[in-house]
Amino acid sequence: MPDLKNKISMTLKDQPQQKLEIMQANYSNSKSILQQLSPFVYWAQTEKQITLKIELKDAKGLHIEFTSNALNFKAKGYGARGLNEYQFYIEFYALINSEESYFRVIDSKIECIIKKSEKSWWPRLVATPQKPHWLKIDFDRWHIEDDRLDEKPRDIRQDYYREYERLQKEEIGYIKESTKTVYMVFYNFAQFIGYLYILCVICILYYRDGPDVISKTYEYVGNAMKFVQLLQFLEVLHPIFGYTKGSPLIPLAQVMGRNFVLFLMIEWEERMQTKPVVFYLFIIWSLVEVIRYPYYLTAIAKMPLAFLTWMRYTIWIPLYPMGILCEGIIILRNIPYFEETKRFSVEMPNQFNFAFDMPTFLKIYLLGFLLPGSYMLVTHMAKSRAMKLGKKRFIRAAND
Fold first, then answer.
1. Which residue among the candidates 206, 320, 337, 365 is catalytic per the annotation?
2. Alpha-helical segments (H) within 114-259
3. pLDDT one-digit tens code per residue, 230-258
4. Is 86 a catalytic residue?
5. pLDDT at 279
6. Of 26, 209, 238, 240, which is most buried by a Cβ count within 10 Å?
7. Is 171 a catalytic residue?
8. Which is nearest to 109 in space by CA: 58, 43, 50?
9. Going by C-beta distance under 8 Å and a sequence separation of 6 or more, which residues neighbour residue 137?
């Protein structure tokens, strides 16, 4: 019995010591785990390869090992926690070609080019659904050349926009739009509101006051029309800076023609401001734009509407000729006014030895600019309509 009591007492004495040793061992293990630092790693992909950007400056003792399904990294350098030893291990979602994969040191980062074994799109980088906190998506590299032999670089954000949006939402909690996209949304929405305002004011006043309001159209909405028409000069810059596709010549011709009529023919000649033709011209311009700008908004949002597309490329057929006719009438009516006032005309003699006759210029403008420019515009719209509303394209748009 005494021996049994001694054994029990010794066991009870040793138990706290054993617990303390276990706690110290667990602490030391957790401390070593916490001391294992990982650099920030940004990744992007194409169908053929994975690109990893490891943010580590002045890397020493660099060790990168590619296996058939993983990457092991270890190096000492300046990272997120200053000068330390950093390491990480990634088990990939699918197999890679370790022999063709390689890395290179560029400035303050290390770039790994990892070739996929099979050409496919990976829904994620790592094998497990839970990704490490130091692994980020490199959204800047989604616009890259997928194949150097292609004539034009592919935009991965357009080729795989659904996957791109899903990854963005997983990474930052919402879909991050580019500055260009946000600007284009605001611009088109603002222009739509501007022309809708003009159209609504004209219609409400006509409903309330009848035909008597026609002569006061410019008085009520002239300033608003001048503002939105001046803003349209931005549409000449959009294709130049790559915000939209196509040539800047078509929007330049259209915007210059409208502003020539609005500012020189109407704003500078008060007698023209009360003519009924101004009322009809403003309605035509506004009707065209309240269809065009919503169409652009749906295109930016990648949610095309078949009816809106049809309206955009059909409503110009009756409205453009009527608008051209109204502009021509305004110019013709202004010729005797400018002959009377000599506005913008320069007569000889003068110090520059130069003469300019505005009525003659208006006649030349009608025959040499308005008619040929209108033909070019109508031809361009006809070609665009054939491309957009071709039978196969229109059916596909209606089914989307």
1. 320
2. 156-159, 161-172, 179-209, 217-231, 234-240, 249-259
3. 999 999 999 998 888 888 988 999 999 99
4. no
5. 97
6. 238
7. no
8. 58
9. 42, 43, 44, 167, 168, 171
